[in-house]
From TrEMBL:
A Gene Ontology cellular-component term: membrane
Keyword Glycoprotein among UniProt keywords: no
Biological classification of the source: Bacteria, Bacillati, Actinomycetota, Actinomycetes, Bifidobacteriales
Gene3D superfamilies referenced in this protein's UniProt entry, alphabetically: Periplasmic binding protein-like II
Protein's UniProt name: ABC transporter substrate-binding protein
């Protein structure tokens, strides 16, 4: 019989020795595994400490590698250019992020895409917090941009009255009829002593809240753009409250106002422009330092220059005061929903 296998089975003449295991050579495979293991161990040795310590190795907030990101409208305005210059001179690095409208900055701050923003007054912030169920907070005051009272003009274009006290009793004063400026204008007239209200003034006061019998003047509401013209053409209008958007268009200057908001008055509080942060960051020393630098004379001088001399600085309010004002205004918002 020829040597070999039969029927696919093992040749019985050569039985399998099971006394020792079959040895297969795996040298190449083992070498590859060993190399891979060494590489994995090395990667872990380098990678695990990096993962564990990456937060500790991150650049501190306010440094060149991790600047304070501030959302604004008008990043190239002179006050922001000066602010960045002054901040870096003091070792604080900031990134001024420009926005084209007023609707995106608060959501960006709430989402953590910004560290701070500065574009709004307290009334705007209160409306946002209430409507969006947020808790953004003011950390420092900047300024208010006053709403002024302007006198009737004579035929030569000169003001008939040069002081608010000269407005005759029983005369008529025009105010804007849009919701925001109307309430503010009533507050200005109240602070000037021209009207008395039936109840406390709020940012939602309307002409019906005026106690006419106890007031020095009568009030008529009209479109904001019509008020300046009425001072020149309607002899029954002794004075008018003109918001800043229409002052220059009327050939007037803010300096022509015979009365304007006082940043310290209760009626002006909702219109204080503020730096805003998330609630957890109110006590952040880096952000507080940023506010202090902005409130320096060098920066405020540029802000005043950009406002054509109309800004009334509001840099003396404490954070606690601004937070309380915001809380009160938010309650007014809820009460008037």
């Amino acid at each position: 019989m020829p040597n070999g296998t039969s029927g696919g089975g093992r040749d019985p003449r050569y039985p399998l020795d099971t006394s020792n295991p079959v040895r297969v050579y795996h040298g190449r495979r083992n070498a590859i595994i060993a190399v891979v293991a060494v590489l994995v161990i090395a990667a872990l040795a380098i990678g695990i400490p990096w993962v564990m310590n990456r937060d500790s190795h991150a650049a501190e907030k306010g440094t060149a590698g991790n600047p304070v990101v501030i959302g604004v409208v008008g990043a190239t305005d002179p006050q922001w250019v000066e602010f960045k210059k002054q901040a870096e001179a003091q070792g604080l690095y900031v990134q001024i992020k420009d926005f084209q409208d007023y609707t995106s900055e608060n959501p960006a701050l709430a989402a953590g895409d910004l560290d701070m923003n500065e574009f709004q007054h307290l009334l705007y912030l209160a409306n946002y917090n209430v409507s969006d169920n947020q808790d953004l907070q003011p950390i420092g005051g900047v300024a208010i941009f006053p709403l002024g009272v302007y006198s009737q003009m004579d035929s030569d274009g000169n003001p008939v009255y040069t002081d608010i006290s000269q407005i005759p009793e029983g005369s008529t004063v025009a105010i804007p009829n849009d919701e925001t400026n109307q309430a503010r204008a009533i507050g200005v007239l109240k602070a000037a002593g021209l009207v008395t209200l039936k109840n406390e003034w709020t940012a939602f006061s309307i002409p019906q809240d005026i106690d006419e019998s106890a007031s020095k003047v009568k009030v008529v509401a009209m479109k904001a753009e019509q008020i300046a013209n009425s001072l020149k053409s309607d002899p029954t209008i002794a004075a008018g409250v003109i918001n800043n958007d229409y002052v220059a268009d009327a050939g007037l200057s803010a300096k022509d106002a015979i009365y304007q908001d006082d940043a310290e008055s209760e009626e002006s509080r909702p219109y204080i422009n503020v730096f805003v942060v998330r609630a957890d960051d109110v006590d952040n020393p880096v952000y507080q330092k940023a506010v202090e630098i902005f409130q320096s004379d060098a920066v405020l001088e540029k802000l005043q220059e950009n406002s054509d001399g109309t800004a009334v600085f509001a840099n003396n309010f404490t954070t606690a005061q601004l937070q309380q004002y915001l809380k009160d205004i938010e309650q007014d918002v809820r009460d008037n929903q």
